[in-house]
Amino acid sequence: MNIHQHPKGYDYIDEGTGPVLLLLHGLFGTLSNWQSVVEGFAGDYRVIIPLLPIYEMPLTQAGVPGLVAYVEGFVTAMALPATFAVLGNSLGGHISLVYALNNPTRVSQLVLTGSSGLFEDSMGGSFPKRGNYAYVQERVGYTFYDPATATKELIDEVFNVTNSNAKCLRIISIARSAQRHNLSKELPRLQVPTLLVWGLNDTITPPSVAHEFARLLPHATLRFLDHCGHAPMMERPVAFNRYLRAFLQSDSVLAPARTTA
Q: Could you read off the pLDDT of 75-112 as tens digits, one per residue?
C-alpha cells in the first residue's frame, strides 16, 4: 500500500477503482490495520484510508469532534462522490457514527467493528506505562484473542507513542473525549444500513456493546466472530471480508458492476 499526500496535507491510502469505501482506523491503529480489506476489495472498490492525525493535531482539537472535522475536510479535499460506505474500527467507528449523524445523505452504508461510542475499556482498563516494554506488549496483546496477532512492529509503534509526552497528552485527550461523547440518545436517528462485526472475545468493547448498538441502530445487522478480539479485520480477515462483501452487495447502489458469462 502506497501512502499518498494531498496538497492540503492529508496522508492517505487510495487503492482500486469503483464505489468508494472510506476506512477509519482506531486510536492506536495504523493504515496497515486495514491491509486485508484493501487486498480483498481493491479489485472491485476504491478503498480510501486517511491517516488520522491523532498524535499531531493541536491539543485543543484532540477529541472526537476534531477528528470528525478532519474527516469532513478530507472528504471535501478528495472530492469524494455524493455517497459512499464508511467503515470504522474502535475509535474509527465512533468517528464514523458522528460523521454519519452530521452527514446523513453522504453515507450509504456503515460498517462498525469493535466501535466505541457506547462503552470501551481503553487499553484494558489502564494507560500504558512509560518505558515498560513488557507492559505495553501485554496491553497490546490484550486487544486480540490470540496475543501473537500483535506483531513486534505494532508493539514497537505503541511503545514509541507511550514514550512521547506530547503524543500521550493527545491520546488521553481523545480517549476522554470518546468516553464523554456517548451516542446512545443519537443512534436511533441513523437510518443508514449498518453492519456490526464483533469479536466474541473482545474485552475492550465486549459483545454486550455490540448487542446495544444493534438495539439502538434502526437498520443494523450483527455478526459475531469466535476466537476474535477487538480488531476482527486483522484477526479474522477472511471471515470479516466475507461478511463485508455480502453486506456491500446487498445494496445495489454500492455493489460493483459485474458481467455475466
A: 999 999 999 999 999 999 999 999 999 999 999 999 99
**Long-range contacts made by residues 208-215, C-beta under 8 angstroms, separation at least 24?**
209/115, 209/118, 209/119, 209/120, 212/118, 212/119, 212/184, 213/112, 213/115, 213/117, 213/118, 213/187
pTM of the model: 0.90
Distances (CA, A) of 57 to 31, 94, 139, 174: 17, 18, 25, 11
User: What three-state secondary structure class fits 86?
Assistant: strand
- The answer to whether the beta carbons of residues 205 and 114 sit under 8 Å apart is yes
CB–CB of 186/212 below 8 Å? Answer: no
Alpha helices in the chain (DSSP H): 35-41, 64-77, 91-102, 133-141, 152-162, 165-180, 207-216, 232-235, 237-249
Q: Which three cell numbers stand for residue 69?
A: 472535522
Q: Is the Cβ–Cβ distance between 158 and 27 less than 8 Å? A: no
Fold held by 3-249: Rossmann fold (3.40.50)
Q: At what angle do helices 165-180 and 64-77 cross, to 10 degrees?
A: 100
In what side-by-side order are the strands of the sheet with 220-225? 3-5, 11-15, 46-50, 20-24, 84-89, 107-113, 194-199, 220-225
3-state secondary structure of 196: strand
